[in-house]
Amino acid sequence: MSPNKGEGQIDIEIEVKAYAEDLAAIETRLQRLGAVFTGAVHQTDRYFNHPQRDFAQTDEALRIRIADDRAFMTYKGRKFDRLSKTRERSRLLLAMLQRPRGCSSG
Predict the structure, then answer these.
(1) DSSP 78-89
(2) Catalytically annotated residue among 47, 48, 49, 81
């Protein structure tokens, strides 16, 4: 992520998903390599469609994501590569949300 933490960025997203049978073994291996767990992020996504075309058919996506104390709007363009799901992504910070008193960030 860029230093501005997504406050109006356009980039190329490369996403590759893989199946993992044993998540605990992967976490152990990462720790042995020096990785440090920094916390969990809780996300809620709301997806929208264009009135003139179906984004599911065009491989595009428009969503609002609430992640902990921030709300982002993200547009993902058509995929360049079906294997890695490479695409252009535009993201805009919509709001910094206030947490109710007594809530921690994870």
Answers:
(1) EEEETTTTEEEE
(2) 47
